[in-house]
């Protein structure tokens, strides 16, 4: 190990840490993945399964990442070497690899959102579905896509290069309140639309019948979504918690972060569906690309749609940005801790490499979907699963000790947490991994 002569960076305030974690959690996963999965997987039945997994799987798993990060004050590789050692160190490597792969294409999709925000200000959106589709194909791949992918990655590099307090914390202090306020404003606007009533009943009415016939697809989808949306399984929460200087109540912080993520996801459904229904567009069409097409076509149809679309896509871009910085920080923290590289150089080199790795995705949308599936359903779940086994079964005492710093005596919370990690979380992740491998 290198001797560290410089004091490791920390968050300036407790709110800074919470906002950064909220910024990481609230992202592309909330804005299209979530509402559309609710729509496809049985409306309120999926919603209920999802909420169950958030509490039963997401919350305990988030606390695991927090304690590992705060205990070691290290990047994911260093952290896993410190608490597990030996072969467990490879789990840290899985996190780094996943973060690397995910940001490479996350940035491509984020680039589309920036492109689509500009589209509102320039030519406006096209109401005709076929034209909107053709437009998406031309904007989402090729040089246009590469340019916006590069632009987005450059902004991520700048924020991460500025460091924890001057870069990430400052950025999320501006971005997260903006996301919350604009999302609420858009929900109020969507409420006034003609298609709102129909949209709400589509979004919120339980179709219990679907739950009985489709549970095999609803359950893994809900579990996977719970993990992805909370930024788990990539070491992002380990990394952010490693910058906690002081002992704060991590259970309370986790609950706040999860509340924000779930709230924004839910409200986004109240925004997206009224817009689609009012424009007479079927929301059943899945996939990241299809959602760009249907929303853009809806904005093409609405009065002042260019403005609504501009605001919407700008919000999505901001949310994607605050998530992307956490993904880059996972890898950058490793390069700084383990290779003794200056933060600015680390951010530039890592960002440039991620940009290059994303170029194939910016040319080939089928490839992008394939990489997304591999990263989400296999890499992320595998890394998450191994960490839960390590902490739940091998290191429960260390974990309980660490969680109690800043809380005091955990009482019944300690066994409840450890047993949640040991059985439900591990089982859900094993099933999700098996299904993910089958699907792949
Ligand atoms: N939680 C983010 C979302 O919902 O879009 C995605 C994400 C960001 C996952 C950062 C993992 C991560 F480390
Ligand atoms: Na999320």
TrEMBL record:
Membrane-spanning ranges: 12-32, 44-68, 88-108, 146-164, 171-191, 218-243, 255-277, 348-366, 378-396, 416-438
Keywords, in A-Z order: Membrane, Transmembrane, Transmembrane helix, Transport
An example Gene Ontology CC term for this record: membrane
Chief location: membrane
Compartments (UniProt record): Membrane
InterPro entries listed in its UniProt record: Na/ntran_symport (IPR000175), SNS_sf (IPR037272), YocR/YhdH-like (IPR047218)
Pfam families xrefs: SNF
PROSITE patterns, A to Z: NA_NEUROTRAN_SYMP_3 (PS50267)
Membrane topology: Multi-pass membrane protein
CDD domains recorded: SLC6sbd_Tyt1-Like
Protein name: SNF family Na+-dependent transporter
Organism in which the protein naturally occurs: Natronobacterium gregoryi (strain ATCC 43098 / DSM 3393 / CCM 3738 / CIP 104747 / IAM 13177 / JCM 8860 / NBRC 102187 / NCIMB 2189 / SP2)
């Amino acid at each position: 190990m290198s001797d560290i002569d410089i004091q490791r960076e920390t968050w300036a305030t407790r709110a800074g840490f919470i906002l950064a974690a909220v910024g990481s959690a609230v992202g592309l996963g909330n804005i299209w993945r979530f509402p559309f999965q609710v729509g496809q997987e049985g409306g309120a039945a999926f919603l209920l399964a999802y909420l169950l997994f958030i509490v039963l799987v997401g919350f305990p798993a988030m606390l695991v990442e927090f304690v590992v990060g705060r205990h070691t004050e290290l990047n994911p590789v260093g952290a896993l070497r410190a608490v597990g050692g030996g072969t467990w160190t490879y789990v840290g490597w899985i996190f780094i690899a996943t973060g690397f792969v995910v940001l490479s294409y996350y940035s491509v999709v984020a680039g589309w959102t920036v492109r689509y925000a500009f589209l509102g200000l320039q030519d406006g959106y096209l109401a005709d579905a076929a034209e909107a589709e053709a437009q998406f194909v031309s904007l989402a791949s090729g040089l246009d896509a590469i340019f916006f992918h590069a632009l987005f990655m450059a902004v991520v590099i700048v924020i991460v290069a500025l460091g924890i307090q001057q870069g990430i914390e400052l950025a999320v202090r501006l971005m997260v309140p903006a996301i919350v306020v604009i999302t609420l404003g858009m929900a109020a606007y969507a409420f006034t639309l003609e298609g709102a009533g129909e949209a709400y009943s589509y979004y919120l009415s339980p179709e219990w019948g679907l739950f009985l016939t489709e549970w095999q697809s609803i359950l893994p989808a809900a579990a996977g979504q719970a993990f992805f949306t909370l930024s788990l399984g990539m070491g992002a929460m380990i990394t952010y918690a490693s910058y906690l200087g002081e002992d704060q109540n991590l259970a309370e912080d986790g609950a706040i972060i999860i509340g924000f993520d779930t709230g924004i996801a839910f409200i986004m459904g109240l925004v997206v569906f009224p817009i689609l229904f009012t424009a007479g567009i079927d929301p059943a069409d899945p996939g990241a690309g299809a959602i760009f097409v249907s929303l853009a076509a809806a904005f093409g149809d609405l009065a002042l749609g260019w403005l609504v679309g501009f605001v919407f896509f700008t919000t999505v871009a901001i949310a994607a940005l605050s998530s992307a910085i956490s993904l880059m920080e996972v890898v950058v923290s490793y390069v700084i801790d383990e290779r003794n590289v200056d933060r600015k150089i680390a951010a530039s080199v890592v960002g440039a490499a991620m940009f290059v790795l994303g170029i194939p995705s910016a040319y080939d949308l089928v490839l992008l979907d394939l990489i997304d599936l591999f990263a989400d359903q296999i890499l992320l779940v595998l890394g998450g699963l191994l960490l839960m086994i390590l902490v739940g079964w091998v290191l429960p005492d260390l974990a309980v000790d660490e969680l109690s710093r800043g809380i005091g005596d955990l009482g019944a919370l300690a066994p409840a947490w450890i047993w949640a990690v040991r059985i439900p979380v591990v089982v859900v992740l094993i099933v999700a991994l098996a299904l993910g491998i089958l699907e792949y």
